[in-house]
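Example 9 (inverse folding). The structure is encoded as follows.
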């Protein structure tokens, strides 16, 4: 079998392509495998980051719910405390008003008693003065001596 020059060139070219393909193909496959591994690693990392973000989101949502529940509790406690303070203030105000009314009533009664005592004293003094003036004007000397003697005999009888 005789091959001419073009057949040898074709065979040489085919061998050259096979050798290049074998060497370059391995390099291309290695590059593509490396790129595939890199893409796979990046996808795994992205998946891991997504899972971490989802966990953090759930964690913060839970914290938000806890904070909202705590805020509601604080508000409820504040309203209860405000009601209690208002009730205490009303109770103290009622007690103060009742105490002041009692004090005012006592002062009024004391003033009435003082005024009644003063009026009685003034009335007694006026009655004594009026009786004395009446006696002085209506009694003559004889009648006054008779009264003095009668008084002396009454005093002597009581001893």
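The amino acid assigned to each position is listed next.
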């Amino acid at each position: 079998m005789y091959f001419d020059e073009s057949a040898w060139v074709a065979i040489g070219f085919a061998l050259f392509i096979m050798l290049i393909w074998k060497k370059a193909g391995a390099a291309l496959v290695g590059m593509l495998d490396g790129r595939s591994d890199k893409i796979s690693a990046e996808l795994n990392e992205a998946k891991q980051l997504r899972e971490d973000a989802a966990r953090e989101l759930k964690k913060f949502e839970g914290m938000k719910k806890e904070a909202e529940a705590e805020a509601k509790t604080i508000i409820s406690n504040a309203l209860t405390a405000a009601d209690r303070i208002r009730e205490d203030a009303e109770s103290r105000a009622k007690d103060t008003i009742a105490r002041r009314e009692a004090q005012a009533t006592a002062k009024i009664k004391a003033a009435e008693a003082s005024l009644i005592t003063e009026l009685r004293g003034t009335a007694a003094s006026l009655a004594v003065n009026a009786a004395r003036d009446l006696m002085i004007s209506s009694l003559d000397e004889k009648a006054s001596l008779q009264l003095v003697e009668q008084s002396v005999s009454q005093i002597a009888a009581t001893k």
